[in-house]
Structures are given as C-alpha cells and as structure tokens.
Amino acid sequence: MAIGQGLSGLPFDYATILASVPAQSGDYAIYNRTSWIYVGESRDIRARVLEHLEGDNACITRNAPTGFQYELVAGQARRLARQNQLIVALKPVCNQKLG
Fold first, then answer.
1. What are 56-86's pLDDT values in tens digits?
2. What is the value of pTM for the model shown?
3. What's the fold here for domain 10-95?
4. Which of 35, 45, 51, 86 could disulfide-link 56, Cβ–Cβ 3.0 to 4.6 Å?
C-alpha cells in the first residue's frame, strides 16, 4: 500500500489493525476525514499503530483519527528517510514543529 494516495486506506480500529497490519518494519500515516494527522515509522507497524489507537499520543487522539495507511520499508535508515519525505509531503498536524 502506498501512503499518500488520497485518504483511502484502512479503518483506524482494533480489528482492522490486527487483521490487516503485519508485525513488520515500515512507515504509516494516520488521518481523519479532512487531514493527515501523524506520520511515523517502526520496526513493528502493527504494535506501534495499536499503541496510537490506545491513546499514547494526545495529539493523535485529539484529532479523532478515522483511518491509516502503511508501507513496508526495511532498514531503519530507509524508514526514517521515507518518514521525513512523507512529513514534508503530507504536512500532518501532529508532526509539525511548534515555535
């Protein structure tokens, strides 16, 4: 799945995450009906997206996510580079630096 191809993706809910997201390395983007909320990377996408669903990031929770997308990306350097590329392209509200 390629991130950033519009807002079509997977519902941001427990059952979908468990059934559809592999416990593999990659990048992910969380959104609501009107905007991109957060872009992240992890060695285990499933575990990390579940942490967000459980409310580990107040900014994500406050923005009422409805969906997410992910890509499998091997290697930390490649994941970080892709994450940075996606942050620049999508401008997610919870990744923007304050001040």
1. 999 999 999 999 999 999 999 999 999 999 9
2. 0.92
3. GIY-YIG endonuclease (3.40.1440)
4. 51
